[in-house]
Automatic annotation (TrEMBL):
Pfam families: DEAD, Helicase_C, RecG_dom3_C, RecG_wedge. It comes from Tsuneonella litorea. GO terms for molecular function: ATP binding; DNA binding; DNA helicase activity; hydrolase activity. It comes from the Bacteria. This is Probable DNA 3'-5' helicase RecG. Residues 272-434 form the Helicase ATP-binding domain. Gene3D superfamilies: P-loop containing nucleotide triphosphate hydrolases. GO terms for biological process: DNA repair. SUPFAM superfamilies: Nucleic acid-binding proteins, P-loop containing nucleoside triphosphate hydrolases. The keyword Repeat does not apply. The gene is recG. Keywords: ATP-binding, DNA damage, DNA repair, DNA-binding, Helicase, Hydrolase, Nucleotide-binding. Residues 457-612 form the Helicase C-terminal domain. The keyword Nucleotide-binding applies.
């Protein structure tokens, strides 16, 4: 049960004044569904705006407050395009106040032609035109704007504005309860951190490092504690010892010898499976390092030991790919394998469910459909989870509850994360690393090219496509407003489609899943030759014929992310090239990062360097979702504070293992606050 003291924080965001269904939607997009989420929606940064009399006195990229007169409204021809309110300053300079999505309705109302307004926002240039995208404030007289020259800037989604979200945050902060202190008193005093509620209030007011650190530390502590509870619980659970006699593995006819790293990992897994304590192991290996074969061997050990094995993939496409590969490799062993996804219906589905129930199907591959209530196993001994980073710990635990005795778990991830983050993310697991690539891989040529040479790159692309190869073109997601990124990607798509016609497809996060899937499938089958995408190219998708990867604004990506994207090419026999388009101005760190991409293809090394370089102070404009399991703590804080939090959690567990006593009770509140309450639930079970 969640402690009552937290109830005000877990009230729906709709209970805040001014949040109806219209606002609830964009809030949900940002992950803000409860009062707590709103209170924890910390500013990306703070702006100081400069009041200027006209645009000549401002420079591009600067935050300003300027008086303007509205001259004209221009709707874009396409529905997704921008809505421009044209205006002039006192000197007759033209500027476009640009709106995307629903915000254009507000603009129509608040900016009638002829109106004089003080406009606050960032002055940008788009082509030859000056523009201010989504002005932060509009006012009929300057006084109230000039009064608020230092303001938090929050990340937004369509339908939200800075003032709106600031108002909601203020309301949420008024509802903060008094919570007991969970930080160890010595630590708390030494760091001179503010108390929890004060820290939240300060973090919204200005750049307050101690407040931000305290909030990050809380999150790290909650995470460490929860993972330790999982681990401790796992030690107490009974599993089944699965000893393989090698009879099935011996019949495998692999077309290649295993690498040393593969052999070592299989050995580690085999030892774990032979124990009657359930395995909790993470297999980390770069894209292409050969995780599938390791999974196959593990599953065969389970089958040799008389149990069933299930492989869970995050998407339908991946599940199918795995099924095809595994079925081919399993051929000579005679071991049956089934595919089960949400799409299967009727008879076929029934017969698979029967086979799993009576044990006649020893191996199943699928999406989360394989763990629905209707699915029962005769004796599930091993669960393999591919692309683990797509699933949270709570899902891992849910899967583990499927067997009568806890099944062994092998989680696999291709995201090379630094050792320190491995601890944060997978602290409850043992780790095997595939740190050696199968021999004979073609290196991917990586080139860094200035964006003003985009035209040449398009010509290069044309030659590729003419030669029958396929290619990716990736646009970044970097702005505060997703719709602006989408607009940029759509514009690029339109331009490329203009040039290359129907063989171009587009994939981005705002498309319906069916449309996205259809586009992916056209590309995977080779009907489409060029895939334009915003960062999310389905993990693991394998198109060996794709040999060119172009990434726009490469400097805005994390190295690990660039590496993952680059890994989409270089999968066939032909030479592959990755083109990193960079902006005109690049910081020293930015240069260093892109140079590293040219220099190495070792994902683990890139991950470590990325952490070092980013920790060095240069924060990207945006947090990269999916990088870490944290919402509050950034990479720098993880590096500085995680070791301390981890140690504190360990002491708390050792001295107060049942989380009893005063600090134990406070720690429970913390776990619930960060929704690591599955940790608490395990406590009761044990
Ligand atoms: P990932 O780790 O990305 O899942 P895969 O398991 O899909 O990698 O393997 C990538 C490719 O490498 C596959 O075509 C696979 O058959 C091949 N492969 C795996 N292990 C070896 C090996 N030891 N020697 C040569 N090729 C291998
Ligand atoms: Mg794989």
């Amino acid at each position: 049960m969640r402690p009552d003291v937290l109830n005000p924080l877990f009230a729906e965001a709709e209970t805040l004044e001014g949040v109806g269904p219209k606002i609830a939607k964009p809030l949900e997009k940002l992950g803000l569904t409860r009062v707590r989420d709103v209170a924890y929606h910390l500013p990306d940064r703070f702006v100081t705006r400069r009041p200027v009399e006209n645009l000549d006195a401002a420079s591009v990229g600067e935050q300003v407050v300027v008086p303007l007169t509205v001259t004209e409204h221009r709707a874009s021809r396409s529905a997704r395009g921008p809505y421009s309110v044209m205006a002039i300053d006192a000197l007759g300079n033209h500027v476009s106040l640009t709106y995307f999505g629903r915000a254009s309705y507000t603009a129509k109302k608040q900016l009638p032609v002829g109106a004089k307004r003080w406009v606050a926002g960032r002055l940008d240039q788009y082509g030859q035109m000056l523009q201010i995208v989504h002005p932060d404030h509009l006012s009929e007289d300057s006084a109230d704007l000039l009064g608020t020259l230092n303001e938090p800037v929050y990340s937004l989604s369509d339908g939200l504005t800075q003032p709106k979200i600031a108002g909601l945050v203020a309301q949420a902060l008024e509802r903060l309860p008094e919570l007991p202190e969970w930080i160890e008193p010595g630590q708390f005093a030494k760091m001179q951190w503010p108390a929890w509620a004060d820290a939240l209030r300060l973090a919204h007011k200005g750049e307050h490092a101690a407040a931000r650190d305290r909030l990050a530390y809380d999150e790290l502590l909650a995470n460490s504690l929860a993972l330790m509870l999982v681990r401790a619980d796992n030690r107490r659970r009974r599993g089944q010892a699965l000893g393989g006699d090698g009879s099935l593995r011996g019949r495998l006819d692999l077309p290649f010898p295993l690498t040393g790293a593969q052999k070592r990992s299989i050995g580690e897994i085999e030892r774990d499976l032979a124990q009657d304590r359930p395995m909790l192991r993470l297999l980390q290996g770069d894209v292409g390092s050969g995780k599938t074969v390791v999974a196959l061997e593990a599953m065969l050990i389970a089958v040799e030991g008389g149990a069933q094995a299930a492989l869970l993939a995050p998407t339908e496409i991946l599940a199918r790919q795995h099924y095809d590969t595994l079925r081919r490799m399993l051929g000579p062993t005679g071991v049956e394998i089934a595919l089960l996804t949400g799409r299967d219906k009727g008879r076929a589905r029934e017969s698979i469910l029967m086979g799993l129930h009576d044990g006649s199907i020893p191996i199943v591959v699928g999406t989360h459909a394989i763990f629905q209530d209707a699915v029962t196993y005769r004796n599930l001994g091993l669960v393999v989870i591919d692309e683990q980073h797509r699933f949270g710990v709570s899902q891992r635990l849910m899967l583990a509850s499927k067997g009568k005795v806890a099944p062994h778990t092998l989680a696999m991830t291709a995201t090379p994360i630094p050792r320190s983050l491995t601890l944060a993310q997978y602290g409850e697991m043992d780790v095997s690393r595939l740190d050696e690539m199968p021999p004979g891989r073609q290196a991917i040529d990586t080139v860094v090219v200035s964006a003003d040479r985009t035209g040449e790159i398009v010509e290069r692309l044309a030659r590729q496509l003419d030669g029958g190869a396929q290619a990716y073109w990736v646009c970044p997601m970097v702005r505060e407003l997703e719709s602006e990124d989408i607009a940029a990607a759509e514009a690029r798509y339109a331009a490329l489609k203009n040039r290359f016609g129907d063989q171009v497809v587009l994939v981005h996060g705002q498309l319906k899943p069916e449309i996205k899937d259809a586009a992916m499938e056209r590309f995977a089958s080779g009907t489409a030759k060029l895939l334009v995408a915003t960062t999310v190219i389905e993990v693991g998708v394998d198109v060996p014929n794709a040999t060119l990867m172009v990434i726009e604004q490469a400097e805005r990506f994390g190295l690990a992310q660039l590496h993952q994207l680059r890994g989409r090419v270089g999968r066939g026999a032909k030479k592959s090239v990755c083109v990193l388009l960079r902006g005109e101005t690049l910081s020293e760190t930015g240069k260093e990062r892109l140079a590293l991409m040219r220099e190495t293809q070792d994902g683990f090394r890139l991950a470590e360097e990325d952490l070092r370089l980013r920790g060095g102070g240069e924060l990207l404009g945006t947090r990269q979702s999916g990088d870490t399991p944290f919402r509050v703590a950034d990479l720098d804080q993880i590096q500085r504070l995680l070791p301390i939090a981890h140690e504190d959690a360990r002491l708390l567990m050792e001295r107060d293992g049942g989380l009893t006593g005063e600090r134990g009770a406070a720690a429970r509140v913390l776990l619930y606050l960060f929704e690591r309450d599955w940790g608490v639930q395990l406590l009761r079970g044990g």
